[in-house]
Amino acid sequence: MGKQIFSRIEHNRTADEIVLQIEQLILEGVLRVNDRLPAERELSRQMDVSRPILREALKILEQRDLLVSRHGGGTFIADVIGEIFSQPVMDLIARHRRATFDYLEYRREIEGVTAGFAAQRATQADRSRLTDIINAMRSAHDTDNFELEATLDVEFHTTVGEAAHNIILLHTLRSCYRLLSNGVFFNRSLVYKYSTSSGSLLEQHVAIYDAIVAGNAQSAKKAAESHMEYVAQALRKAERADDWERVSNLRLQQRSGNSEGIRDGN
């Protein structure tokens, strides 16, 4: 799983100490859902503990629903992202579009606070990760890869949330993005497809990024809020344009059918 993130247990080599370390990594967002732990032999080496003690710790974490073992596939971080709403409420939201814009209004406020904290607290590693994502977004934009750009959009905001170094904000945002990824509120690629200015969304993400890298909390907050306001406006236009396209296609089909009928009648 890349570079070693687990540290040696220095003193009391007990299962509780191992559990505490892994829980901390999950809580701080270092370990994400579906991340695979190193093999038992390697993990015991990294943490400098016996394999029986490690097995005991992993069993405790599984009992707490933080880890899941897949037969023949290893041990993974369980789906620990909480659902903000129950399934019936999510279904209700999906049927009533007003909730979408209430969601974006909420996102405007929480994204602003998060970006401000990120500007104040981002480490060099955070800034490096954000730079990589921004470069990938530019590349996706240049190749008109709407789906990839939309996916990177969520990764960018998630990484800003990590750079804010506030555990509650981090997991609140991840839960929000889960709803977004599941398409409960809207299809993100639709916004990219019908945005009035194809470069506007990229420019907004770059503005957030620049302010965070510069350590300007006020500018980062303002840039994040402006971005969410734009997304709300773009979504309204995108839904309207998508509906126009649907109606136009139906008219075309109907007129084509009528024309064929007239020719057949003659």
Describe this structure in words.
With 266 residues, this protein is mainly alpha-helical. Helices cover 71% and strands 3% of the residues. The chain contains eleven helices and two strands, in the order αααββαααααααα. It has helices at residues 15-27, 40-47, 51-63, 87-95, 98-121, 124-142, 146-163, 167-181, 188-194, 200-214, 217-265, and strands at residues 67-70, 74-77. It has a two-stranded antiparallel ribbon. Strand 1 and strand 2 (74-77) form a beta hairpin. It is globular.
Strand arrangement, major sheet: 1-2
Total strand segments: 2
**What level of helicity do the residues show?**
over 70%
Number of helices: 11
Q: The biggest beta sheet, please?
A: 2 strands, antiparallel
Mean pLDDT value: 84
Element-level helix/strand string: HHHEEHHHHHHHH
Q: Structural class given helices, strands, pairing?
A: mainly alpha
The global form is: globular
- Poorly predicted segments: none
Q: Which radius of gyration do the C-alpha atoms yield?
A: 24 Å
State the end-to-end distance.
Answer: 71 Å
> How much of the sequence is in beta strands?
under 5%
Provide key terms for this protein.
11 helices; two-stranded antiparallel ribbon; 266 residues; globular; single chain; mainly alpha
SSE topology sketch:
Layout (H helix, E strand, L loop, with lengths): L14 H13 L12 H8 L3 H13 L3 E4 L3 E4 L9 H9 L2 H24 L2 H19 L3 H18 L3 H15 L6 H7 L5 H15 L2 H49 L1
Antiparallel strand pairs: 1-2
